[in-house]
Amino acid sequence: MKKKVLGISFGRKMSNCDVMVKHALMECEKEGCETAFIRADDLNISNCTGCIACVIGMVTGRGRGYCVRHDDFDILDECIMQSDAVILACPTYETSVTGRFKTICDRIGPSHDITFRKALYDEGVAAGRPESELPDVRSFKKRSAALISVGGAMTENWIALTLPMMYEFTFPMAIDVIDAVEYYGAMAHESVLGYPEMMDRMTKVGQNIVASINAETEEDRIAWRGDEEGACPLCHTRLLQLSHDAKTVDCVVCGSHGTFTVDEEGKLRIHYTKEEMDRSRLRWGGKLEHSTEIKTQAQPTGSIKGLKEMKAPYAAFNPGVFATDETAFGNVKK
Ligand SMILES: Cc1cc2nc3c(=O)[nH]c(=O)nc-3n(C[C@H](O)[C@H](O)[C@H](O)COP(=O)(O)O)c2cc1C
User: Fold this and answer.
1) pLDDT tens for each residue of 297-313
2) Do 223 and 235 reside in the same domain of the chain?
């Protein structure tokens, strides 16, 4: 059976992200894969309301880990479930991902967290429950990803948060990111078509994805194929946070905690112990630690005594919005 690669563009219609994803998909097709393409803005996907019915359903065994809402997220979800790899391209809006990208990430996790889903699945199988009542078994398939961030600014730091944020799409389902590209200076719709080196890099993205999904060993499948090693030895991003005492660092993206040294060339080197790497949210252990703390330590709703009285002043306090200043030249329609 042909391997399936799903491309998702979060950009404008027929603009940089669309072209870049499609180019990489075409390369995958040349190499014998079946492809699908989604432009995220063509889908009608509503925001997560924070009802946490997805999590409660998984923890109590009454649900399958799905959102109570049915909208076009279901189309996206089915495509992800069928895929062996995903190629995502997202424009930079205000130094980070677009609102729709974040909306989709919120709808993916925690409902798609594989440690929540697997526990429920295994318990269900052990209890003899039918597959139709359990989380989709395709949730546990090994998948690879390539991430592409695009920005219009000519200065690279204006796209700094986009690529790191894109891991929010992949980590709940443990999709392994094997390649990543940051492209800035792309304000015009067609910018990338005038930049042959970047189009060649998209050919390489397609080839890297094909090499990953056809790899014979798991080690080769997840091998990093990006241009740079990055700062984080695990996720290869460059967004590190200094600890409060300024002696250690955390990777903001993958949650690994480690120490740093400066080598003889003056380069900052990050060091993680194996134990710390296994606590990363990119790995089973890190995800399990998190889902277990949610299951066992999160304070249940309604457990605070005298809550009704304590809430009353806040429920009664509703100052509303400021009245429009008619003397100012704002944008409220008169
Ligand atoms: C609301 C908004 C905010 C933007 N903010 C940034 C930014 O912070 N940094 C940047 O490099 N480009 C920014 N851009 C430019 C887009 O990232 C750029 O046009 C990109 O090419 C869009 O991708 P597309 O061509 O695939 O639609 C912004 C564009 C919009 C519409």
Assistant:
1) 877 777 889 999 999 99
2) no
- Work out the end-to-end distance of the chain between its first and last CA atoms, rounded to an integer number of angstroms: 61
Q: What is the pTM of this model?
A: 0.96
Residues 244 and 131 in one domain: no
- Tell whether ligand 1 has an atom less than 6 A from the beta carbon of residue 151: yes
Mutation choice for ligand 1 from 10, 93, 101, CB with most ligand atoms inside 8 A: 93
| Ligand 1 atom having least distance to the Cα of 184 | 11
Tell me the CA distances in angstroms from 110 to 53, 96, 97, 291, one per residue in order.
11, 21, 19, 9
pLDDT tens-digit profile of 120-164? 999 999 999 999 999 999 999 999 999 999 999 999 999 999 999
| Whether 161 and 269 share a structural domain | no
Please tell me the distance between residue 314's alpha carbon and the centre of ligand 1 in angstroms: 39
Number of domains the chain contains = 2
Distance, C-alpha 6 to centroid of its chain: 15
Q: What is the dihedral of CA 114, 1, 9, 65, to 10 degrees?
A: -20
**Is the same domain home to 204 and 264?**
no
Q: Are residues 63 and 192 in the same domain?
A: yes
In this structure, are 49 and 179 located in the same domain?
yes
What range does the domain containing 262 cover? 230-284
Top mutation candidate among 8, 41, 150, 195 for ligand 1, by most atoms within 8 Å of CB? 150
Mutate to test the pocket of ligand 1, among 39, 87, 90, 92 (most ligand atoms within 8 A of CB): 92
SS (H, E, C) 260-279: EEECCCCCEEEECCHHHHHC
Pair (48, 174) in one structural domain: yes
